[in-house]
Design a protein that fits this description.
By secondary structure, the chain is an alpha+beta fold. It contains 5 helices and 7 strands; from the N terminus they run H-E-H-E-E-H-E-H-E-H-E-E. About 30% of the residues lie in helices and about 15% in strands. A 5-stranded mixed sheet has the order 2-4-5-7-6, covered by helices on one side. The protein is globular and about 45 Å long. The structure holds zinc ion (ZN). Zinc ion binds next to strand 5.
């Protein structure tokens, strides 16, 4: 763990001083809708948050957010509330790991991820749909037990268990994964081909990449 931390720091340190290492989000042209990021729990207080990037329990091994909060563009957030409502009737609720993500954090993930695992992270030259406030990482929790539902793999795992069509795991784990996917797809989201927990809101192209911090969102 200490070695991993040293390596992470070294990569970030090296990157800062490398010529040509992008430190700003890509320039985008075209017309975009105005950003309207909303805090998810203000729209639906029954959503449960587990913002891993505000803790050390994440792929970086240290917090990368100062605040454990989650935001999405308003239409995506409203669609998510519909998903949560439908799941409640079945005894489940949504468990949110991450929503809008400042571009600088996407850049950090890219820099610390080894080449063979790059498909699990977004290229900062293109930005992530999280940077547009139109992607969400989430799972389910069981209202009876109050516990996170077991899926075929865990959040941010960089193995084939993360693929939404992975055939391994138990019948129950695949059933839960497929339930989450079907409800999200019914409300305008598309699953990422390598991560069962990551969904893009279908109107993501309408919103620009942003780099504002949570504390700056009004
Ligand atoms: Zn994601």
């Amino acid at each position: 763990m200490i070695l991993k931390e040293i390596k992470n720091r070294l990569v970030v340190f090296t990157c800062v001083f490398l010529v040509g290492c992008a430190t700003k989000p890509p320039h985008e042209t075209g017309t975009f809708k105005p950003s309207d990021l909303v805090e998810l729990i203000k729209l639906d207080s029954t959503l449960r948050l587990d913002i891993r990037y505000a803790t050390s329990n994440n792929l970086v091994g240290r917090p990368v957010y100062n605040e454990a909060r989650a935001f999405l563009q308003r239409p995506a957030a409203e669609a998510l509330v519909h998903v949560n409502d439908e799941l409640k009737q079945m005894g489940y609720r949504l468990l949110i790991f991450d929503g809008y993500r400042p571009w600088s954090v996407t850049k950090l993930f890219w820099d610390i991820t080894p080449k063979e695992s790059k498909k699990f992270v977004a290229d900062p030259k293109k930005g992530s749909r999280h940077n547009r406030g139109c992607a969400i990482d989430l799972s389910l929790y069981d209202m009876t037990t109050g516990k996170e539902v077991q899926m075929p793999g865990v959040y941010d795992e960089q193995t084939e268990r993360s693929y939404p069509d992975y055939k391994g795991g138990t019948d129950e784990q695949r059933k839960m994964r497929d339930l989450l996917r079907s409800k999200m797809e019914a409300h305008g989201f598309t699953v990422f081909e390598y991560e069962w927990w990551h969904f893009d809101y279908n109107d993501w192209r309408s919103y620009k990449i942003q780099n504002i911090q949570f504390s700056e969102i009004r």
